[in-house]
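quick one
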Amino acid sequence: MILAHLSLINFKNYAEAAFDFDPNVNIFTGLNGQGKTNILDAIHYLAFCKSYFNPIDSQNVRHGEEFFVVEGIFDNKEVHDKIYCGVKKGQKKVFRKNKTEYERLAEHIGKYPAVVISPYDKDLISDGSEMRRKLMDSIISQYNRAYLEDLIDYNKLLRQRNSLLKYFWENRTFDADNLEVWTIQLVEVAKRIHAERKNFVAQFEPVFLAHYAAISGNAEDVALEYTSHLSTGDFSDTMTASLEKDRRSSYTNVGTHKDDLKFKIGGHPLKKFGSQGQQKTYLISLKLAQFDLIKETTKRVPILLLDDIFDKIDDVRVQHLMKLVSDHNFGQIFITDTHSERIAHIFEGISDSAKIFTIKEGEIYEPQRK
Ligand SMILES: Nc1ncnc2c1ncn2[C@@H]1O[C@H](COP(=O)(O)OP(=O)(O)OP(=O)(O)O)[C@@H](O)[C@H]1O
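structure w/ adenosine-5'-triphosphate:
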């Protein structure tokens, strides 16, 4: 699927704008704060019904206005889908495909897959394990619906078990049989989640390593390490061993809600020992592996949204990255850069066609065709 057209009304710093896109490469250039990333975010709305950057829809309405509209047309040989997203302050978001409103936004997710690479991804390295679990969950859920159901069930069971522990603690009581009912169910779902995450990391890591090696020119030894309470011993026994602690803390201390995907460089934590360029290379490689896995498992080619990806990486890595882009079939790419000449030069020879849009204060200047 190709995003052929995008139109915006009152979206962030755009009053009104319309774009006809190239099927291969679309480049947005301009100085800082002009609205380049906002275009990628509008595309993110069309793919995921929400912003990549700001979860509060109303804050994406242009200052002083009451509503925004983002519309796009996705094309391929057979279909011509018109996607509409409208947000009016104080009202429910309206999301339509070809004039039909979705009952649940979740039905739309995955139909027009997209992968974003942005400076905001550094939270994956700096933040706690929750971000990295979300990364695993969001990729696996795109190709495995049963996994998504398991995640929902697990969270429900966990909340119920924790409430019960809290009730026991507050009322100075304990009912082992009652707790056991929740524990048995939790253990069962946790085992499935663990097996699926393990399976995912086994597929994902080699793809990630290949991208990292290609971009860095084999310069560093990196690894992904999946850690879980379920990796050692039988999980039922681990739960039993944790029971006294759980009762004292009114909380379930072990389970897949504590899993992590550890980022390593030279055997050490990337967060502490990776340079900014190495961290950026790591994040780009993770996202490209995400792209490959979604493409392979869903048989749909995601749109690639690249925000400021050249920042902090040296020229050698930029060359390797661009070689990778040219050798790999990435489908449609949207990319932002503050250096119009650099980006135009980089894409010369990579793609048969590319459109360059110059953005200034939420206005678009005539695209230059390569
Ligand atoms: N709701 C809004 N209403 C009006 N303007 C907004 C709104 N939200 C964000 N902006 C403006 O959008 C601009 C930022 O746009 P964007 O992040 O797309 O910039 P950019 O061109 O990608 O910049 P950089 O090169 O620094 O990454 C800022 O000037 C910001 O004030």
